[in-house]
Amino acid sequence: MNAESPDEAGADRSAEAVWAVLPRLTHLSNAMTRGRLVERATEAAGLTLDRPATGVLLTVHAADRPLRIGEIAERMQVVGPHVTRQVQELERRGLVRRVGDPHDRRASLIEPTAEGAKAANRYTTSMLGWFADAMADWSDQDRGDLGRLLGKLADDVIARLALLDDAPPPAT
């Protein structure tokens, strides 16, 4: 008879809990990034941008300061050249602008223009309104729990990903 240790039993329950919620997280992620929800929020914002450009605009708008291309790419988990093309399109449309980096004269930072910030706010307002409607029948406790737990999950996943980025590559 092979008895599990308490640690193994706890790990199994934890894995089962994650496995149970993973399909729902995937479905929600797809709905938010690829589904009709994004299309509706884009239409409500009056944007005629494709999803990657919208993502760059939202990333720059949500930042607490102007960002370098590499920082935008890191936050979006994409490669720099992809972001460069999107920034060029957003610049052409007057939604973002380049500003000088005060710490490195060779580099530029990207920030939203007033029109870009307004468009990002319209998009975000539409998206938040949709979620508020979806959770309208929830108790304050349930909404608070969701926010707290999603925040904790996001922080922990980001921290673990950072550890992977800092770890040496596996030996071959």
Structural description of this entry:
The chain has seven helices and two strands. It has two domains: 33-134, Winged helix-like DNA-binding domain superfamily/Winged helix DNA-binding domain (Arc Repressor Mutant, subunit A, Orthogonal Bundle); 137-166. A hairpin with a 2-residue loop joins strand 1 (96-101) and strand 2 (104-112). The two termini are 37 Å apart. It has a two-stranded antiparallel sheet with strand order 1-2. 16% of the residues are buried. The chain is 69% helix and 9% strand. It is mostly helical and 172 residues long. Helix 3 packs across helix 4 (69-76) and helix 3 packs across helix 6. The longest helix is centred in the first third of the chain and has 28 residues, at 6-33.
> What is the total number of structural domains?
2
- Class by helix and strand content? mainly alpha
What's the CATH H-level superfamily name of the largest domain? Winged helix-like DNA-binding domain superfamily/Winged helix DNA-binding domain
Largest sheet, order of strands side by side? 1-2
Low-confidence stretches: none
Specify the biggest β-sheet: 2 strands, antiparallel
Distance between the termini: 37 Å
Give the DSSP E fraction (strand runs of 2 or more residues). Answer: 5-15%
User: What is the CATH first-level class name of the largest domain?
Assistant: Mainly Alpha
Topology-level CATH name of the largest domain: Arc Repressor Mutant, subunit A
Shape: globular
Looking at the overall shape, the CATH architecture of the largest domain is Orthogonal Bundle
Q: What's the count of strands?
A: 2
SSE order in H/E notation? HHHHHEEHH
